[in-house]
Design a protein that fits this description.
It is a single chain. By secondary structure, the chain is an alpha+beta fold. Helix content is about 15%, strand content about 25%. A 5-stranded antiparallel beta sheet has the order 4-3-2-1-5, with no helix packed on it. A hairpin with a 6-residue loop joins strand 3 and strand 4.
Length: about 90
């Protein structure tokens, strides 16, 4: 089912989910490539997710055909709750 943008594994962000780049985690080369494309203050829309036995990756609508290590991103919460992309870690620090 890889490449099928309609497939959404249970418990994982699906197509249309807004994500934020964390600017941390992943292998050094993955992080370096992502830093050239992503901004930590912007949100990105999931086009597809691939979940393996020991990894997961996202394809974003803004960068079709490219996959990025999922550990470098977090799901944005709806603005009505805490504001766009407030991570659980940041919420504990306020």
């Amino acid at each position: 089912m890889a490449g099928d943008s309609e497939w959404n594994p249970p418990g994982w962000p699906g197509p249309g989910t807004k994500m934020r780049f964390l600017d941390r985690n992943g292998y050094d080369y993955q992080l370096a490539e992502a830093r050239e494309l992503f901004d930590t203050k912007a949100t990105y829309t999931v086009k597809n997710v691939e979940v393996g036995s020991w990894h997961h990756s996202f394809e974003f609508a803004e960068f079709p055909g490219q996959r990025f290590n999922g550990v470098m991103f977090e799901e944005c919460e709806p603005p009505a709750r805490k504001g766009p992309c407030t991570s659980a870690w940041e919420a504990t620090r306020t």
